[in-house]
Amino acid sequence: MTCATYPNRVDLLFKVFAEGVHVDAEPELPECFKNFIQKHKLVFLGQGRHRVAYRTKSGNYVVKFPWQIKGNFDNMREAHISRKSKGEYCHYARCRCFDIDEHACLIMEYVTFPERYDNLPAWTDYIDCRQVGYNKKNELVAYDWA
Ligand SMILES: Nc1ncnc2c1ncn2[C@@H]1O[C@H](COP(=O)(O)OP(=O)(O)O)[C@@H](O)[C@H]1O
Ligand SMILES: [Mg+2]
């Protein structure tokens, strides 16, 4: 997939790895995602290593679109693990996988990020870059564990 902000995908990958997992610029996405975003009036949140996240109009949910092939696997894995896990070790944001033109997308509860990261429970050490936040019930959950 090409990307308007970073026409060369190597530039984009370099930026993601050199400067962290989060990119603020909205990437160029395939038409099927653009139509979905427009139809549901989604608002751009951020771009990670494999996926780009948008917030729903209600503010309660996030939709994650794969911007590269691995994003599909991440979305499927997260949905699978969250369904199987009873939260004994880690706590996962509620989420569900769905298809848009055979791309695996994910809808997940929206979380707000912690103000401090030095007083979080030990299980968050096992989540890559401590990508955790508080859901509507004020429960601390992971939002990226694929
Ligand atoms: N549930 C969520 N609530 C709020 N923001 C989120 C949520 N999930 C993802 N984000 C935002 O979108 C960005 C990209 O999503 P992420 O799941 O980390 O993608 P990737 O797996 O590609 O790194 C995150 O860095 C974060 O800023
Ligand atoms: Mg991430």
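qc> The two ends are 21 Å apart (CA to CA).
qc> done
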